[in-house]
Amino acid sequence: LKIIILAAVGMALSFAAVYFFNRFLLTAGYGDFFRSLLFGGGFLVLTVLQVFTIKSLTKLNFILFLEVLSALAVFYPHFYPQISIPLVAAGFLFFFFLSLGASQGLKLLGNSVKIQSILTAKMIIPKVVTGLLIFLSVILYLNYFEWGKFNDGLGQTLVNQSLTVSKPIFKYLSPEFSPDKTVSQFFLAVSENQLEKLKSRNDITNLDLNYDALSPEEKKQVAGKVAEQLKLSTEKIVGPLNGNDTLNKAIFLGIKNYIKNFPPNFTAVFGIVTALVFFAILKSVAVLFYWLVEIVALIVFKILLISGFAYISIENRSREFILLK
Asked: Residue 203: is its pLDDT beyond 60?
């Protein structure tokens, strides 16, 4: 019964982590992303506990297989009438890395005189994270580059949120930066800010004018000319810009037009590269939090022991060995 409980909880956590991640891809809602992160972390902890408490690798692999099926169940429309081969391959890789981590963890426990909780968790977690992130990266690729779930509304939302996160960087160029300002207002603000910086560094002489002697209106005209040059330079890279568009809209349209110019065969390559970059970023961030999963798994394991849900038994074993007479 206890093994069934562990399996049911694992299936629920696997389903929830993938479900909320998929919803995040479709809505760009950070709430869904953090829910996915929470359930994904819970899944990692539970996988470690399953290795601690289930001695049979066959039973453990069966439970892990059910958990992968639970994650795949989120995408059931893509299994009938036509099966998505990349989705099946992602599920297989997910199961492979789960099984690999579980088998290595069981092997370490089997060869240890005392249960080495932290060391076992250190062996399991990287494999489970790799399998899960491969699965999520394939889901990102399929949603955006095969299933056509990416749309203008979603793209605009992603750009808006990215600009909000990047505000400190843009404020270096313009202290009064706001993504709701128009393109013209943004370039003008950047020009005015840069002119003031040049003046403070006594580099304004490079502009062949006495900046301090100019009236506020004349300073505005000079900044306007610099802003126009900045806009023209930017258009050489991203294409035409409408000065009356808000900054967030202009950035989204620029990215959209840039991607539209890709050759058809390059779009698939771009999608694969995007998925690989996504995997690499999340993997590098996840490594920083392995210790947290290890500590939580150890704490939960101790709670299970205290509550009587699990217990430690002593096993006497004998083995043959060879001696020289």
From this structure: no
CA dist., res. 59 & res. 53, Å (int): 11
Task: Bin 208: left if φ > 0, else alpha if -120 < ψ < 50, else beta.
Answer: left
DSSP state letters, 289-324: THHHHHHHHHHHHHHHHHHTSS--------------
CA-CA distance, 144 to 259, in Å (whole number)? 13
User: What confidence score (pLDDT) does residue 250 get?
Assistant: 83
Angle, vertex CA 149, rays to CA 258 and CA 285, nearest 5: 75
Angle at 206 between CA 200 and CA 212, to 5 degrees: 50
Alpha helices in the chain (DSSP H): 2-27, 30-53, 57-72, 85-110, 117-141, 152-165, 167-173, 183-200, 216-238, 247-260, 264-287, 290-307
Residues 241, 243, 248, 252, Cα dihedral to 10°: -20
**How far is Cα 325 from Cα 311, in angstroms, rounded to an integer?**
43
Please compute the mean of the pLDDT values over residues 158-177 and round it to a whole number. 74
Cα distances from 209 to residues 52, 214, 286, 322, in angstroms, run 75, 9, 53, 94
φ/ψ of 212, rounded to 5, equals -65, -30
Distance CA 224, CA 191 (A): 7
Per-residue pLDDT tens digits for 242-288: 888 888 888 887 777 777 676 767 777 888 888 999 899 999 999 99
Return d(Cα 216, Cα 207) in angstroms, integer: 17
CA distance 79 to 11: 19
- Give percent above pLDDT 90 in the chain: 30
Residues 6+ away with beta carbon under 8 Å from 139: 18, 21, 22, 25, 75, 87, 90
Spatial contact of 78 and 105, defined as CB atoms under 8 Å apart:
no
